[in-house]
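Hello Y.,

Per our agreement to keep a running log of every chain we model this quarter, I'm adding this entry. I've kept the format consistent with earlier entries: sequence first, then predicted structure.
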Amino acid sequence: MKPPAYVRSILIAAAAAGVLAVSPPTQSSEALSRRLENRSLAATTGSPVDVIEAEALIAQGYTTLPQVLANLVPSFVHPEPALAQGTDHARPSALRGLAPDQMVVLLDGRRRMPAAWLHRADTYGRGSVGVDMGLIPLAAVERVEILRGGASARYGSGAIAGVINVVLKDASAGGSVVATFGQYRTHMKGVPDLLRVRARPPSDFQLIEAGDLNTDDGEGDTLTVAAHGGFELFDAGFIDLTAEFRRQDPTDRSGFDPRPIYPALPGGEFDPREAFADRRTQRYGNPDQEDVKLLTNFGTPIGERTDFYGHIGYTARNAESAGEFVAAGSDANVPAIHPDGYLPLIDSDVESRYFTFGLRGEHWGWRWDLAYTSDEHEMDFALESSLNPSLGAISPTDFEVANYEGRHLIIGLDLARELDLGLAEPVTVRWGVEYLDTEYENEVGDPASIAASGARTDDGRLRPPGSQGFFGVRPPDDFDAPRTNVGAYLQLEAAPTRAVETLAAVRVDDEEEGTEVSGKLGALWHVTDRLDLRGAVSRDYRHPSAAQTYFHATELVAADDGYLEQGTYPADHPVAQALGAETLDTESALNLGIGAEWRFGDAAALSLDLYQIEVDDRVVLSNWLSGPDVTELLAEQGITGVQAVRYLLNGPDTRTRGADLAGRYRWDSRWGPVELGAGWNVSETDVTGSAPVPAGLAGLAGAEPFGERDAAQLEQWTPDSKLILSARWQGERLSLDARLTRYGRVTDLGPVPEQDLDLGEPWLLDLHVRYRLTARGHMGFGVYNLLDEYPEVRSREPSDPVENRVLPYSSYSPFGFNGRFVYLRLGFDLTGG
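Predicted structure for the entry above:
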């Protein structure tokens, strides 16, 4: 049996403090291992790069990396969808309004593995597979570098919107232990509380509402304990250790359910239990989650010119979110098991295992780096408090439903040297080769989670088959799909004059989809000591991921005379091919960017960057194709028993245009330094073309893979702008931070235009206070979303779907829908003094 969460937190903190205490602060050794050249982003000439240092990252109340970046970086988005199965547990992140898989995430210069989950629900990133950045312990991060612009010529597939490089700490002494506790204290804007139930037999049943729901007693308690420390390794190297524990209670932003929970009694009278039923039937918000993250980074010389280095990381996450509530009177319920209905709970065990081992050095005038990287991501799903209705009263209530696992290994060799060709500066030549082996697999669930055993309702209807809330993986959907990629690049960096720097890069990749060539040209002109102009053009690409190429998930549904199949099929599957699917092709992109940066001494700076990104053949998930016409078309090709089909396809061509504006100002006042900052991103995505409807589907009802409504949602699923204004005052012991964030327009498109929801353009105010108690101890507290802003609530008119009352907020909200968050932090710095 697991000990309580608070006991584990105390044990982890005590153990970490005890380990770190044996390494008192010392002066860093001058013989420390040489730092990696390619830990920092390469191919930056002509493209803007944001550098966010550890001090800014940890001066937050949030304790996961994507949450922190969403608060600091205008072009970065990290929505918090709910009721979306695995997307609740591996949330998407992205840059510049593009898809989660159109950016590359690096850890100390090495590519991270995407999560083993294909986003399939109606949320941002639908049809994509992105990196789960929340698996990286924040306490281990030295800085984050964000390259905004195309970089496939250096980093390969997916570097269309940009590259995020998370650089790890490499301390050889000192450390810290920090504990952060926070909770949501909020009034749910536009969601009424239930005052009482008015019930008069035989059929008069009303819910009397009053005021707004609130969580003044706190909800979503979140505790994070992080310990970090550095030690000398073999007198001349370092080993940097981080341990982080995070415990998050769930939140619930659902409204009261006005629907009947129990079946009507004979004669049409309502069941008296309706008057006493719990009307908060749904759980809609953050999952119940627990993370343990361990990471070590190390490096040491093994000769006069050679270093051995690497990092090893492991994250274990257990998360629980909810499926859709099943009423007691539903055909999907068995009253003998759940007399009051049930709320299926989706439980995931996530493991991330990764390491890099490398050698680097300098010989014969060349700096070289040879590295081996392995990265695995596994998601094991189970269901609790559910059932398989087709099994009747013998159904279990807990199921193992699916296991998804992705892994990759990379062997890379990078070399660089300077050549004196008579220019203002030596020409830097970089070249390298890379071998990437990727595997994605899908494993079968419990037999009971997929069974269709024929149980019927009292009036003879077949009950739904399979585990409710998450249908188990069926044997036809089990697969293990390996693939390989071999790439090579060449990059030249030259300064024709002392005022001009240029870059040219080309890369060739050979993968199963074919051979791709990418390239980049960039230039930086130092017009004066205070003004720089920059520009870049690149041809970028993204191979469809293994999950997009091979993913297969089907389930059975009850029909009048038996069971039919529906699901998501690979594009190469005969069912998808029968409906016009074609083998997935590579996305290609043309990236243009120009910018300027002004510096006004050491006190102020201003930068402006304009960009245009054209992406052809974007991979998207089709609509459900169903109906009599589709069934007939399948039957003509010998396929029967299939009710509904969707697949991934190369659908739209898009053009994203935008601008990034950033400014800072520092003022040394008599009371301490004051820093002001502003960041603004504006972007607009337009669908400029789309693949035609397959000839066999033209004119058929219910058979449009990607239509006008899909295009409109793709254009509007991220904010059209994001503004961040910040101010910081640093006193001798006290510091104050304030941040004002405004999100631009996002629209959640409903099934019909009348149900479209504009989520509003709120201003969010955050305040943070930090006080140094002693030379080594500090405390802090703060509030996110002080004014308790929410996205616009869904319409509650009588003609609107009843789900609007139960699920009042949209999962497309770019800042979530959990309301005000308050926190307290205590820390002990082992490097202080």
